[in-house]
Amino acid sequence: MYRWFVFLHIAAILGFMLSHGSSAAVAFALRRERRPERLRALLHLSSSMLSVFYLALLVLLVAGTVAGFMGHWWAHGWLWLSLGLLVAMVVGMWIVGSQYYHGVRKALGMSYMEGMKFYGGVEPAPPEALDALLARGQPVLLAAIGYGGALVVAGLMWFKPF
What we know:
Oligomer: single chain
Helix content: over 70%
Structural class: mainly alpha
Shape: elongated
Order of helices and strands: HHHHEEHH
Number of helices: 6
Largest sheet: 2 strands, antiparallel
Number of strands: 2
Strand content: under 5%
Number of domains: 1
């Protein structure tokens, strides 16, 4: 059964990465696009994968936790560091990305979130304000956090150095 939980854990990681593939592409595309209808479509594409993201994250955590117990890995530092890095990646990407994306959604007149509260669409911002907001995106930083963190976690899981 242990190998099945490890397989499920890896499958969930792939689903997690797949759900972020569209968001990563959108992050880079937002810097170049200025047509509001295309920007709305890009943001819709990115948010359409959120349910896959959350499901994959849940399965990743549950299967990884079970495999950790079955393999008696919880006494090893690499597992705790991997878990800590996953949390840091999620929090880091949320801090860097969420305010930006919700600000763009609001500037486009779409529904958006401030704090922990959702709001309906508002009057779109003037094109100059939207341009300035779009220029503040940090897709390279988001990709570095996500890919770099995932690479380190994969190395820890593969080599189990401590």
